[in-house]
Amino acid sequence: MSLKNYVELNRTGDKMPLVGFGCWKISNEVAENTVYQAIKAGYRLIDNAADYGNEVEVGRGINRAIQEGIVKREELFVVTKLWNTFHNKANVRASFDKQLKDLGLDYVDLYLIHFPVPLKFVEHTKAYPPGWYSPDNSEALQYESSPMHECWRELEKIVETGLTKNIGVSNFNVQLILDLLTYAKIKPAVLQVELHPYLQQSRLVKWVQAHDIQVTAYSSFGPTSFVGLTEDGKNTAPILEHEVIKAIAEKHGKTAGQIVLRWSLDRNVAVIPKSVNVERMKSNHDITTWTLDQDDREKINALESGMRFNDMDSYGFNIPLFC
Questions:
Q1: pLDDT tens digits for the chain (323 residues)?
Q2: CA separation, residue 175 to residues 74, 161, 208, 252 (Å)
């Protein structure tokens, strides 16, 4: 089993760290210092998005670390994402420019389409981030005619300017990626999806990797991030407390979190755990110098249940996106 701490992206050959730091659900009040501490702890990939609403603070944390000489900009791999309300070809670049300005950076390393869902455009001045619903208080999702091939072309244009080095997708399935590959001038470098022992997505991962597209797992700890958001998140047994995970952790002298994260790395899948606790940051990052054995992996593989927590139906959006 490889102990590499990065994967190489198609086209550019850029080395994307296999262990990154996720910024979802980090409050604005602590985001700057949290990201700064994460970089001090050794993280070199910072994963963010317009929808997280904390790009200004995350950017401050990144720039503080750079200014203090902890890291050089070229040693970091910064990821952010285009939100659903900005898919129209007239709005992609303006949204990206705002995000880059909010981050206070000259470029990002990877720009992803967050969801394949073209929602009605919302002006930055009306609501930002706009979320899923239109600010007119409509109780139904409002879509717009923004074809993915036009949206993707706008991302390609941003690559051509040098403002993002790589582009990719998030929450896409095989059908969507297969269609995208028929017209893309620049192939997606990365697919980011929910992935953990309860939702292993093995066929998707193998297919995507076979097409030279790297995979990043979000919500590696399963229901943990969704306890306050959905009934499934609240009622499902925590992965980190599962007897199988705890036994493997004890066997290796590691934490349950380290075991779950290392399981993804053993599949050559990147992870982006989040914590505001510095010691846990360090622990989650310390997973690249050791590996699980085959028996461990088989036991974790047996935990597959098809349980998806970031499911639009769980939020009442009435859009079975992953069917």
A1: 668 999 999 999 999 999 999 999 999 999 999 999 999 999 999 999 999 999 999 999 999 999 999 999 999 999 999 999 999 999 999 999 999 999 999 999 999 999 999 999 999 999 999 999 777 767 789 999 999 999 999 999 999 999 999 999 999 999 999 999 999 999 999 999 999 999 999 999 999 999 999 999 999 999 998 988 898 899 999 999 999 999 999 999 999 999 999 999 999 999 999 999 999 999 999 999 999 999 999 999 999 999 999 998 888 888 999 98
A2: 35, 29, 11, 39
Backbone angles phi, psi at 196, to 5 degrees: -165, 175
Write out the H or E segment, with its range, that includes residue 310.
none
- 52 included as an active-site residue: yes
Of 36, 43, 52, 111, which is the active-site residue? 52
Among the listed residues 129, 180, 189, the one whose alpha carbon sits nearest the alpha carbon of residue 150: 180
Task: Please state, in angstroms and rounded to a whole number, the distance separating the CA atoms of residues 34 and 274.
Answer: 9
